[in-house]
Amino acid sequence: MKQLAAVALLTLGLLMIHPAPAAADLTAFLGKATTPATRSAKGVSVGIGLVIVGFEFEYAKIAEDEREAAPGLTTGMGNIVVMTPTSKLQLYGTTGGGVFHEQLREFTTTNVATNIGGGAKIALAGPIRLRLDYRVFKLNGTPIVDRVHRFYGGLSLSF
Q: pTM of the prediction?
C-alpha cells in the first residue's frame, strides 16, 4: 500500500513539473430541443481542456413555437467538462450553470439555470471533429417549462 501511495505521489509530482499542453476547441452546432415540443436549436461553444478536466462556455438559442406553446430559450452556460484522454473518440460528461431567457408570445422571464449532460467528440480529419451532445437544463424561477432536453450535432475545430 505504501508503494502505491509513493508511485501516485511521484506521478502527480511529475505531472505538475511537466503539465500536458492545453487544448482548445470551438464548436458550432445545430440540434433539437424536445420539451415540451420538438423545435430547432443552434449555438456555439468554446472550451479548453487539460487532459481530463476542461472548461467550456456555451451560447445557444432554441426556437419558439407558438402553435405548440413551446417557448423560445436562450442560454449562456459555463461548464466543467470531464473527458477521456483519447484522441480518435473522446467521451465526456459536463455540468455547469449560467443564465437563461425564456419567451413565449408576450411572456418573458430571465433567471439562472443549471445543466448536466455528456457526449462524444469523434475525430474526422486533422483538427476537425464531429461532436454529439445531450443536455438537460433545469430552469429556476417561474419558467413555462422548467426542464429542457436538448440534443445536438456539430463540427468542432481543435487548436
A: 0.85
Phi-psi region of 81 (alpha: psi -120 to 50; beta: other; left: phi over 0): beta
Name residue 40's amino acid: S
Enumerate the domain spans of the chain: 20-158
Q: Which residues pair with 136 in a beta bridge?
A: 116, 149
Per-residue DSSP letter, 71: -
Tens digits of per-residue pLDDT, 53-65?
999 999 999 999 9
Rounded distance between C-alpha atoms, residue 117 and residue 36, angstroms: 18
Q: Answer yes or no: are the C-beta atoms of 45 and 73 closer than 8 Å.
A: no
**Residues of the chain where predicted confidence (pLDDT) is lower than 70:** 1, 8-22
- pLDDT of the residue at 12: 57
**In the CATH hierarchy, which top-level class contains the domain 20-158?**
mainly beta
Q: Are 64 and 80 in contact (CB under 8 A)?
A: no
d(CA 155, CA 159): 13
User: Cα–Cα distance between 80 and 57 in angstroms, integer?
Assistant: 9
